Amino acid sequence: PSRWRSIAFAVKFILTFGVGATSVYLVGFVKTTWSLEAVYIFLTGVALLLVLSIIGLVVASRHVPHIRN
């Protein structure tokens, strides 16, 4: 609904800046602990988890009725 639009934008920006700041420290930790190659392997794993999560949400929400305004 249109009344939730501002809440959705706020959640989006909080998640974007929060995850972005956390990922910088996480990549730095992985690089100093292991190596630069491990960073790429780690990021590949994260991307794979994101894709699998999206596929899971799409499959799980197939039988949910559509929301109307």
Explain the overall architecture.
The protein is mainly alpha-helical. Helices cover 78% and strands 0% of the residues. The protein contains 2 helices and no strands. Helix 1 runs antiparallel to helix 2. The longest helix has 29 residues. The model has no long low-confidence stretch (mean pLDDT 91).
Instruction: Report the helical percentage.
Output: over 70%
Give the number of DSSP strands.
0
- Count the DSSP helices: 2
Radius of gyration: 17 Å
Sum up the overall morphology in one term: flat
Hey, roughly how much beta strand do the residues contain? under 5%
Whole-Å distance between the termini?
5 Å
Series of H and E elements: HH
Low-pLDDT stretches are none
Largest sheet: none
